[in-house]
Amino acid sequence: EVQLVESGGGLVQPGRSLRLSCAASGFTFDDYAMHWVRQAPGKGLEWVSGISWNSGSIGYADSVKGRFTISRDNAKNSLYLQMNSLRAEDTALYYCAKEYCSSTSCNALFDYWGQGTLVTVSS
Amino acid sequence: EIVLTQSPGTLSLSPGERATLSCRASQSVSSSYLAWYQQKPGQAPRLLIYGASSRATGIPDRFSGSGSGTDFTLTISRLEPEDFAVYYCQQYGSSPPLTFGQGTRLEIK
Do B98 and A114 touch (CB under 8 A)? Predict the structure, then answer.
């Protein structure tokens, strides 16, 4: 059974940093790209960042570029998001999501999601 | 960046009725790389449709997707009580960034 378990969220002051983690199990982690998607309270979904299976390709939303860094440790089956210079508008539930692969190809849509970790940026 | 606009914002229907949800893209979505998700309160999104019209594993056949280019539709043929939720479309043909629509809330009438 595929499981994605996020951790590391909490209350943080504006300008401070936080590191999120996602522990993956139930699939061959280093076969798949992984992503972070966030959802502000009562709002829709926003893609934050994605990383290829070997960390060779990384992308960010403009809203977090230069402040957030995605990384992974395939030996530990773990995905990370280092968040610096946090702002009030970064307040959201952060989901870790696995990319979908068919029998022939992989694409940046998400077939498994964690339950999310809540980040609240407030003084 | 491809902007996705979903309509209507809220759809009020009764169980047994047919639901039609729209997702319009600001530019053509290459290779019909469009997905639909369902999200219930307190839960993570669930993948329903990919490639505009292919059902994900375990998704009932009352859910169907159609469309190409800039206009896409999710249809639920006969609403079950568990189908009342928020639905999002997502394009994955042009990235970064990947983009989602703002969602359609399907509520019980």
Answer: no
Contacts of A108 in chain B (CB under 8 A): 92, 95, 98
Q: Give the residue carrying structure tokens 């999120």.
A: A20
Give the separation between CA A47 and CA A72, rounded to whole angstroms: 17
Let me know: does A20 contact A37? Beta carbons within 8 Å: no
**CA of A75 to nearest chain B CA: how many angstroms apart?**
26
Helix (H, G, I), strand (E, B) or coil at A122: coil
A65 Cβ neighbours under 8 A, 6+ residues apart = none
pLDDT in tens, chain A (123 residues): 999 999 999 999 999 999 999 999 999 999 999 999 999 999 999 999 999 999 999 999 999 999 999 999 999 999 999 999 999 999 999 999 999 998 888 999 999 999 999 999 999
SS3 of residue B60 by DSSP: coil
Comparing CB atoms, the residue among A61, A107, A109 nearest residue B96 is A61
How many other CB atoms are found less than 10 A from the CB of residue B21?
Answer: 22
Q: How far is CA B50 from the centre of its chain?
A: 10
**Both tokens assigned to B41:** 């309160």
User: Which SS3 state, helix, strand or coil, does residue B83 take?
Assistant: helix
By the 10 Å C-beta count (0-12 exposed, 13-18 middle, 19+ buried), A17 is classed as exposed
Q: Three-state SS for A106?
A: strand
Q: Is B33 on the interface with A (CB under 8 A)?
A: yes
